[in-house]
Input
Amino acid sequence: MSAAAAAAAPNDPSVRTGAFGPHARTPLGALASTAYGAVLGPAVIGVAFLIAAGWLLLATVPGALDMERAFTAAADCPAAGISTECRHTVGAPVTSVAADHKHRSTDYWLGLGRPARPQRPERPDVVPPRVKMDGRVPVFAAVHPGSALQLTYWRGQIRYVDYHGLRQYTAADPRGGYRLPFAAALVLLSVGGACLRTAYRRARRHAGEPPAHEPWRLTVPLASVLLICCFAFATPWVTSGVPTALLLAAVGAVPVLAGAAWLTRRRHHRTTDTIRVAPLSPLADECFPGRVLGEVPYSHEGFGYLVAGPGLLAATPDPSGRIARRPVPRTLVAVRVRPPYWTDPGPRPAPGAHVVECRDGPTPVYVVTHHAYVPRVLGALRCPTQARLRPSPPG
Output
């Protein structure tokens, strides 16, 4: 079959799925090794992310919820006895007010003096030299050195302060402490599920589906995962409980997944991966980046350039194309043009590269070059029976 006929008949089953179809792109050992690595990598990452998410959901989040419920249910300590499980209040003056500005955030600190009245010996708490506030308002913005505060303790830490009817919680406020680990768990679940889905798709793909280097195959899943992760991370902060956040995250993921599935199905049904290219016969020898790959004697490591001329196609390591040419034989026939596959031999092609699938008898051969040079490759191969195998020019 000539290159022109192959380019003009992209839907011919003999071109797409024959002996030189997607099932025969690489030797069996190389294909198995590539497929194993492509499936194992995302599978291991996905399992690790799911294990981390499970730890957060089963250990960290329940502990934070238990602490929040205990703090909410805690009553004021009786005068007769004070313990860490009830709330008790002491007075202390403000000695300093400091806003510690960092790169993208600010920490608000109140320096504290000795209690206004001595603590009882049985009280286990000691007023720290300063306490970190949760934000600037309302108390931090209203006090100044010398202001008298009421400090409320629970389980050995100052949980909130009062000043003239204003109340502000400190950074040790246990309310909502579950939100950050819960949000992180939802993100890990989303990314871990996406990794396992990628491993599953690659396992099926290596079983027969051509894995092309088409941009949409990467951008659509990445955009979907990014949207789901952003939405899932935000749900704990806009809801009041774990079940509501889970439900909202699931509801938000449904339209994203449906849209991604629709785009993928539409892309699959719209075109095949065979690319129509009109051959262009070179009028003179031209040298450009490209490689010849396959188990053939004219495929050499380090030969990163191609020379195309009237009836000539050769590989060379010389950017000028003048020395060490390795011409392809008359038996090399172009079959079709397609995007690169994950399982193609050799290094991953640069963006914009296309692959000219060829065969030399029963042996598959791949000519990889930028799509702008593909017409010249086809033009050089369009009349293989008349190809002239010229030696390298001297010098």
Notes: The radius of gyration is 34 Å. Residues 28-73 form the longest helix (46 residues). Helices lie at 3-8, 13-17, 28-73, 139-142, 179-206, 215-238, 242-270, 374-381. The chain has a mean pLDDT of 83.
